[in-house]
Amino acid sequence: MNILEYSPKKAFNALFSFGFLEKEPEPPKRTDILNGYSETQIKMFARKELERREEEKNYSMFHIEKSLIEDLEDHKEEILKSDGDYLHEFVDSSISVYYYDQVMIFAKNSADLWHLEDEFDAKDVNQYIVNIIYQHLSEVAHEWLEKQNN
Fold this sequence. Notes:
Layout: H1 8-16, H2 30-33, H3 39-58, H4 61-74, H5 76-81, H6 87-94, H7 99-108, H8 110-113, H9 125-149
């Protein structure tokens, strides 16, 4: 090591080990920050969290209502011309045909839907759940229609 090849600051630092830093300190290694998880594990955790959030969003009544209203807005002219005769079709298409999805929607939103529980007489639990979800979304669609007509 020839000390004469270094700049004066580097030579001084090399001789006396003082802290005149010419370069940025190295950032901590990712494994220090991420508690020893590998990059693959971190990606897996992130993917699972994104999937969980997406699933939660799919079963959120807020997102289902928002999607219904977006569909109604997209077909606003047709709906208004028919005086809302086709609202039930939009409500129907907003409800998943899969039993698991229907149960999850009801379970995740039961606080919003329990007040409707005595209104229906259904042949089985799944039909009961669909009726409750349908009634709620139908109310949302009719409220939207009333706002459009005013």
